[in-house]
Design a protein that fits this description.
rod-shaped
Length: 132
């Protein structure tokens, strides 16, 4: 069972070649992004293979048509993925905004406290002293 905001994850077996390609091309990205990209590439490869096999003989033209059909099918599904990506981006942006606002509030509170402490110290230093 997943939360309302999460979709169930599909486990995709990724080939070592795809993993190596993703690792070399996406240096500095998070493991989640690399894994999702590798899974997408594997899904594209499998879809192209299925399309090519269902078309019959694997001639060059048949293969190219199968790849085009797979790409078109993936592009038609792009709206869902784009919405998920935009939703994730919005969540990250909202969380960053909340964190930034929290930091600003803490810095402001610290500034107010330091100002109050400085004023108290000034008042003590400048207060008239009774003469002995």
């Amino acid at each position: 069972m997943t939360d309302n905001n999460e979709e169930p994850k599909v486990i995709v077996e990724v080939s070592p070649q795809t993993t190596e390609m993703v690792e070399s091309q996406m240096v500095g990205e998070t493991e989640d992004i690399k894994q999702e990209t590798a899974a997408l590439i594997e899904a594209l490869k499998r879809r192209a293979q299925v399309e090519a096999q269902s078309a019959g003989t694997l001639t060059r033209e048949t293969y190219l048509n199968a790849v085009r059909q797979a790409r078109e099918a993936i592009e038609q599904n792009q709206l869902i993925e784009r919405a998920r990506i935009e939703n994730a981006f919005d969540m990250v942006q909202n969380e960053a905004t909340k964190n930034f606002e929290s930091i600003i509030a803490e810095v402001q509170e610290l500034g107010d406290r330091l100002q109050a402490a400085a004023q108290a110290a000034w008042d003590v230093l400048t207060a008239p002293r009774p003469k002995p």
